[in-house]
Amino acid sequence: MTDPDPNRAEAPDPEIAPPESVPPVSAEDLVDGELPTGEDEGRRYPSTIGGAFYLLVLAVVGVALLLVALDEWRTGIRLMGGALIFAALVRLVLRARDAGMLAVRHKVLDAAILLVLGGLLIFLAGSIPDQPDF
Question: How much is the average pLDDT of 66-75?
Answer without folding.
Answer: 92
